[in-house]
Amino acid sequence: GQNIDQPTEMTATEGAIVQINCTYQTSGFNGLFWYQQHAGEAPTFLSYNVLDGLEEKGRFSSFLSRSKGYSYLLLKELQMKDSASYLCAVRAYRGGNKLTFGTGTQLKVEL
Amino acid sequence: DGGITQSPKYLFRKEGQNVTLSCEQNLNHDAMYWYRQDPGQGLRLIYYSQIVNDFQKGDIAEGYSVSREKKESFPLTVTSAQKNPTAFYLCASSIDGALNTEAFFGQGTRLTVV
Predict the structure, then answer these.
(1) How many other C-beta atoms lie within 10 A of the C-beta of residue A77?
(2) Residue A85, pLDDT score
(3) Residue A106: how many CB atoms within 10 A of its CB?
(4) Cβ atoms A32, A48 nearer than 8 A
(5) Which phi and psi (to 5°) does residue B60 adopt?
(6) Any chain A CB within 8 A of the CB of B108?
(7) Which of B6, B31, B50, B100 has the smallest number of CB atoms closer than 10 Å to its CB?
């Protein structure tokens, strides 16, 4: 099976930078995804990593280290609208390439 | 517009009744998924289908059933055997379950069993 760990909650200040970590244990790793979910809404795709390194997309960046089973999502220039849950999800060859989600990190952005 | 549609958004049912949640996509995606989300928790996989006429159990399939008779449709039935059915149910699809493409989600169905 897969084991995915994220911090439960984080708080940051508007305009600041925050890093949300995700560690995973899986057999047959085949990609890691980050999603944003506002309360009561559907998750929306933020980023995808399958090779080691940093992927940058505007204010959001995601990093992956396959050897360490580790990823982080970096949010810059935080805005109040960034207050949401951030979900780390891992895809693995074993188990038919299903996508398994972590429990999510609830980020609160304060003034 | 292309997308993935779940209906209804809110659903109330009496305990002991089966209920079917609808999920339709017009994105021409091969893979479709059903997840359950409980308050303050992440998404747990119920069933998934990588191609029409085929589906596999996820991590919490007990008390649920699905069908995939058409590429566009992946309905989920919550049976009376599901001990705690009240939850937020999310359907998703992706181009291909084997390729590394992101999953797109429907807006969810909030099921309350009374």
Answers:
(1) 11
(2) 96
(3) 18
(4) yes
(5) -135, 55
(6) yes
(7) B100
Cβ contacts of residue A12 below 8 Å, gap of 6+?
Answer: A18, A75, A78, A107, A108, A109, A110
The secondary element (H helix, E strand) that includes residue A22 is: strand A18-25
Is A80 in a helix, a strand, or coil?
helix
Distances in Å between the Cα of B63 and the Cα atoms of A47, B79, B80, B85 are 33, 5, 7, 9
Supply the pLDDT for residue B100: 62
- What single string gives the DSSP state of each residue in A38-72? -TTS--EEEEEE-SSEEEEETTEEEEEETTTTEEE
Q: Is A43:A99 a contact under the CB 8 Å cutoff?
A: no
B4 contacts B23 by C-beta, under 8 angstroms: yes
Chain B 66-105, residues with CB within 8 Å of chain A CB atoms: 88, 90, 92, 94, 97-98, 100, 102-105
* Residue range A25-82, pLDDT digits in tens: 988 898 999 999 998 899 999 999 999 999 999 999 999 999 999 999 999 999 999 9
- Shortest CA distance from B6: residue in chain A: A42
* 3-state SS class at A81: helix
In chain B, residues with a C-beta closer than 8 Å to the C-beta of A106 are: 40
Are B102 and A48 contacting, i.e. CB atoms less than 8 angstroms apart? yes
Contact list in A for residue B45 (CB cut-off 8 A) is 98-101
pLDDT at position B41 is 78
Structure tokens at A39: 């309360």
How far, in Å, CA of A24 to CA of A39, rounded? Answer: 25
H-helix segments, chain B: none
